[in-house]
Amino acid sequence: MTNLTVIKSQTNATYDRVATQWDTSRNKDLHERPWIDRLLAGLPTPARVLDLGCGSARPIGQYIANLRHLLTGVDASPAMIALARTHVPEATFLEMDLTNLTLTGTFDAVLSWDGTFHLSVAEQRALLPRLAALTAPGGNLLLTIGHSEGEVTGTVAGETVYHASLHPDEYIFTLTRLGFETVTHAADDPTTYGHHILLATNRTAAQ
Asked: How many distinct structural domains can be found in the chain?
């Protein structure tokens, strides 16, 4: 029987151990670009952008920084943060677990591409209000999620890691209640190799 609790407890350390291999093999065709562009649409330049679970910051962090936005990346892996600082030296990168974000201020855009799904269902429920609070009025939020509520395992560089998700309807209901004017859900998006994506836009003043 797969022990999901053990796998989850080891996931951050797994990413830290395989950081260089992950960075080398990570798909860099920037298939995420259409969604990143939608996240940034209508925001000022430079916009304050927060990337949660930023990994080595390429290609997404590099793309955002090249658009002259002010990028802050957060990741629990020291090795990933070291790589990110090399790839995008003009950005700010912080070693921090997503379950214990100590950031101050707000950001015009907040994203987590293949990041928050390493948190448990309960941790994601607790995180959503924090993400809304970090999103400035008029700002946008982009997440990748699962197709339904539950826990599964995946692999990274041949190592087993933990994944979880809420049901898409719960994300939509919660983000709407937290003050986002529009929440778009794209299931099995073919342009991103089947990702499930949420884009919440036009965050109103704090609820």
From this structure: 1
